[in-house]
Fold:
Amino acid sequence: MHLLAHPRETRSLDGTWQAIPDQYENFEGYFEDFFDEEDDNPAGFAVKSIYEPGASEENDPCDFNIHDGRSVAVPSSLGEEIPEFRHYEGWVWYARTFDRDAAAGADRTFLRFGAVNYKTKVWLNGELLGTHEGGYTPFSFEATDALEDGENVLVVQVDNQRYEDGIPNESTDWFNFGGINRSVDLVEVPDAYVRNFKVESDLDDGTVDVSVSAWIDGADGDDPSVSVAFPELDRETALEPAGDGEFTGALRIPEAEVSLWSTEDPHLYTVRVEAGGDAVEDRVGLRDLRVRDGDVLLNGEPLWLRGIALHEESAGKGRALDAEDIEERFRWINELGCNYARLAHYPHTEEMARRADEEGILLWEEVPAYWDIDFGDEEVQELYRQQLRELVQRDWNRPSVAMWSIANETDHTDDTRNEVLPEMAEYVRSLDDTRLVTAACFVDETDDGLEIRDPLQEHLDVIGINEYHGWYYGDADNMQAFQEDPEGTPVVISETGGGAKWGHHGDADERWTEEHQAEIYRGQTKAAAENDQIVGFSPWILFDFRAPMRQNEFQRGYNRKGVVDQHGRKKQAFHVLRDFYQTQR
Ligand code: GCB
Structure:
């Protein structure tokens, strides 16, 4: 199933919702009973006592009424909205009503969720529309048949418990912000509509080859006429049926007529896909990205990726970033002199990628296949593919996205993992073979120095390495000893760094001081610059972030490896990194 893409007018269901925690998971049965008996109980909504499920409205103590929750904003991270829910992990019922004007009614209506952490179950007017697992990617359900004229009642059960067979699973070094963390929209479309489309480009001897695929749903065997247009380039072409609702076409445009998208000049073009009575528009970039002779090339030119890693988190807002947060992130990224950012360890809001398109910042995007995933479990593998698919199909039109990362620090001595991860790399390529596939791997310390001993490396276009010389082990500047990979695959240092509490000062060899962290950055940046195989650097991390397993006196619930603290105050390492990037231009 392809994702319902976002570039069209929608009706937002963001705003004030009601939220009710259900820690003991009691209410689903009563809630469903209510709809069975709706005629007897027209005013309420699951108004049942847990002691007397059959009680009438008059004598019911009403332990649970979907309209009588706490008022919360959507999108939001629930624990940030209601302080006593800060560490809550369990079920929460969300509800809101909305009116539908039947006269303006479209043929078909979908409900689209930007991201809900972690499991979601959705009912509209008592009808179960669907379920979803995974906290960071969008999903949609068709609501056409459940919609009513006038008032509609939308109920969403959110479960933010951590699961052993989840992705991620129970153990992560980040905070588990539950809730409807991204926007909810009603999407209205005609009977036959453009579900998604993909624009790919590469350079071929002075020509920009552009290929376009569009997926049309609901045409019922009656092929509509489908076309794509790039108005600013004065180009248009028909897309031909390719089976299973897919339509494809290509354009060849002389390079001289095109402003290619690059980090220096991130030029975007409008693209418009029409199919019968439906049309969607987006802004895309035309560019050529590939790896050759150990380099990452953008439009044929080698690039050194001056990066930074970041989590999606904002003080007091959890994972529900707003426009101001996105603005602030790009201010820091630009101030550091970056041309690249690693969005760790899960898909961030798609607004980050849209902004990166405009700013000319290349992105590493990843799914939360992190640490100890149960790779042997087939259901977990299916969930893994689903999360990859939902991310790739969301962002495959974003020119900023350069790398899809399939995993972070998974055990390279585990045979099952070594069978499954190459399959996932191939799966990503089958969805999108115009970007580079990577993963954050470990490097092994041996008697001869550092070696990449991960069998996954031969399946990757770029090898990501997380190493903490100078912090967890070794000396910060010993990356010179890094062994050349025989294949010459380019390496990005996907993580390195050390912790420091903002404002804590001392000698450069005193842990947790800004001076110590800055010294690690001096050693690491020097080593990275001297190693030819390293083509990029995204140290850990832009800002301090909440991490339940970090509790010493300097941490108190935060991972302190930020070059900025959680309030936006810069540490000395920020300046070391910025100075280094001046020299890497
Ligand atoms: C890592 C992980 C990252 C942690 C970091 C740390 O290698 O990928 O999620 O937060 O180390 O601070 O130890």
